[in-house]
From TrEMBL:
Comp. bias (Polar residues): 126-150
GO BP field: meiotic sister chromatid cohesion, centromeric; mitotic spindle assembly checkpoint signaling
UniProt protein name: Protein kinase domain-containing protein
Disordered: region residues: 125-161, 189-220
Cellular component GO terms held in the UniProt record: nucleus
InterPro entries documented for this protein: Bub1/Mad3
Single GO MF descriptor: protein kinase activity
Recorded superkingdom: Eukaryota
């Protein structure tokens, strides 16, 4: 005996009439016995289909009543069961509820962000008003040259009947020293507490370290009593050009979101750690080590089946690095820059730098400085600045730890590029940036008196190159002195006879630190040609 069960409708032939019995469970055997079993529960989906799809056809004396919608069960060449229809509707409703919930959470997040932004601006305004109301006082980081080796930093001694010509500004034994000829400085220096800052010291450049610890509480530069920062708008940073919301609005009309190398992902950014595996769009990356940890980002060294790659994990979901590096790469005539892919998540993004065929990544710094290698690297840095400024980009935070070389083994000079663009600006999109006082990264240089507030914004990158090359050349922070001809690095400030290489470095640092309002392109081109003739 053969038997089967049917849920929903069952067609039974009685004489010449076909009748459909619905909502019952039947058992059929070849002996023509039919026993009715208890009725099944009717689904909600089927009940709605009853009212809309009941058919009555009269064909050859056969009465046919359809209790289901055939269009739902038969879709093209695919046949659906009633349970599959129910599951499909269930998941559609669930998806709709999740989308509504996500939309509600995003609205609440935006409201909280706006409230926090308003609170931050009020706190900045209050702090600035309190700072302006206090009397400016000279920093106690000043010590005279003749007592520099005897008195610790932070003490001040002066004779009431003598004005010194040599003055040293010194933060500590590891920080930057400033030695300046200042014959007109009054001797009645007052003591004050050093200015505190919330920026972690390990993220500061050598110049920034000294500027933080040696600033007077009044906020004016001790090196230039006539130069003060405009606290009405620029010092407050009411509109920070590096703010994530500002950058997001700048990129709204950009075509980078149509780029095939920009991939939008749903959900949270995956956790990336050393000695682990990262899966992105079907690609598997083996994470080796951490190259650096910055404020809100980390850079890792990793590999795929074919290449060694660099991966930057950022907590900001705005693809600013991808946009800026794309601008740089499109303006470069050379083929040494790597490829970049960006994966956008709800709470951040991941950028992957892949070297071109036959190229490899190397660090910029060496354990033992090699002057010939530094000469090649200096040419590469000058070439990088020429490319950046040609497409109106400013990096504004050039340091050895965020710079990487990408080159073939025999290629000199190497192709150097930044792997972090957190402080960079686009002068083409941000046309309101007309001087260094609009750049947050330039404020330490302004406080030191190295840059004037109204100086052109590109000078920040020139100082960054000088700092980077000095560290590569001497493996020590840059110590600045000021003489009658302007600023110079102390190591190359002596007038004693020297060889052609030392003469070249003297010219190199003095030119970059005293560029003034001259156009950067001729300065960089001239220095690049002089270094090439000497080291290449």
């Amino acid at each position: 005996m053969t038997s089967w069960s049917a849920v929903g409708q069952f067609e039974s032939q009685i004489g010449s009439t076909s009748v459909f019995f619905s909502d019952c469970l039947f058992t059929f055997c070849w002996s023509c016995r039919m026993e009715e079993q208890p009725a099944c529960r009717q689904s909600t989906c089927l009940g709605e289909a009853h009212d809309s799809s009941r058919l009555l056809d009269q064909e050859a004396g056969v009465l046919q009543v359809s209790e289901y919608c055939k269009d739902l069960l038969l879709r093209g060449q695919e046949e659906m069961s009633l349970e599959e229809l129910r599951a499909e509707r269930y998941f559609e409703l669930k998806k709709k509820k999740m989308q509504e919930k996500l939309l509600h959470l995003k609205e609440e997040e935006e409201q909280l962000r706006q409230e926090l932004e308003k609170r931050r601006l009020r706190q900045q305004l209050t702090a600035t008003q309190n700072r302006n109301s206090s009397e400016p006082a000279a920093s106690e980081s000043f010590i005279f040259n003749e007592s520099a080796t005897e008195n610790p930093a932070g003490k001040c001694e002066a004779s009431s009947n003598k004005r010194p010509n040599d003055l040293i500004l010194k933060a500590d034994e590891q920080g930057l020293c400033l030695k300046v000829q200042c014959p007109g400085l009054p001797v009645d220096l007052k003591k004050s507490e050093p200015l505190t800052t919330s920026k972690p010291r390990e993220n500061l450049s050598p110049i920034e370290e000294t500027s933080v610890e040696s600033l007077p509480s009044g906020g004016c530069s001790p090196l230039d009593s006539g130069t003060q920062l405009d606290t009405n708008s620029n010092h407050l940073f009411a509109v920070n050009p590096c703010d994530a919301d500002v950058r997001r609005r700048l990129l709204e009309n950009s075509d980078i979101f149509c780029s095939p190398n920009l991939h939008s992902q749903h959900g949270s950014r995956p956790v990336v750690t050393e000695r682990s595996f990262l899966h992105l769009e079907g690609a598997v990356f083996e994470i080796y080590s951490t190259l650096m940890d910055g404020e809100g980002f980390s850079v890792f060294e990793a590999s795929t089946e074919d290449d060694l790659v660099l991966i930057k994990v950022d907590s900001c979901s705005t693809p600013w690095d991808f946009y800026q590096f794309g601008r740089l790469r499109s303006s470069s005539a050379e083929g040494g820059l790597p490829l970049i892919s960006c994966f956008l998540f709800d709470d951040g993004c991941i950028s992957v730098y892949t070297p071109p065929q036959g190229h490899r990544f190397t660090k910029l710094t060496q354990s033992v400085p090699d002057e010939l290698l530094v000469g090649h690297q200096a040419v590469g840095l000058l070439q990088l600045l020429l490319q950046l400024h040609s497409c109106r980009l400013l990096h504004a935070a050039l340091r050895p730890d965020i710079l990487t070389c990408c080159h073939i083994e025999v290629q000199q000079p190497p192709c150097i590029f930044p792997i972090d663009w957190s402080a960079s600006v686009d002068l083409e999109l941000q046309q309101n940036i007309t001087s260094v006082q609009h750049l947050p990264a330039a404020q330490p240089y302004i406080h030191l008196g190295l840059l004037e507030p109204s100086a052109p914004p590109h000078l920040v990158d020139l100082v960054g190159v000088a700092e980077t090359v000095h560290l590569l050349l001497t493996n020590s922070p840059m110590v600045l002195v000021k003489d009658a001809d302007g600023w110079q690095v102390e190591r190359f400030s002596r007038d004693q006879p020297c060889d052609i290489y030392t003469t070249m470095w003297r010219r190199f640092f003095r030119t970059l630190l005293n560029a003034g309002r001259r156009s950067p392109a001729p300065i960089l081109t001239e220095l690049k040609e002089q270094l090439e003739s000497l080291y290449l």
